[in-house]
Amino acid sequence: MIADLECVVLDCSHPTELAEFYRAVLGGAVNQRDGRWALDEDWATLHTPSGLVLAFQRVADYRPPRWPDPARPQQFHLDFGVADLDRAQEQVLALGATVLDAGADRLGWRVYADPAGHPFCLVRQSRDRA
To answer: For 8-58, which CATH class?
Structure first.
């Protein structure tokens, strides 16, 4: 092993707003004290209950991905397992997400964009995992 994953960093225009969006989805604490990072208007963090840390970094002239446009690719995406796709969809839409591909539902997942345009999926959990 060479390293430990410290956090996943997402570029965006509004770091604290995006951190609050993911806090509402995953739980946790926005901008919790942590000696690894200095917090300011250009950097926000989310410490999730699972231990994962997401960081949000302001980028001048941020250009969100346009899924599935290869000229502006998704760059990365996050998958979130949920027991009830319809209920989870209602919740993320109320938080500011937008639907990118409702047709994927036939396969057990749906594709969305967070408020900054990053794609993410809600994935139906199997009964074994739920």
So the answer is: alpha beta
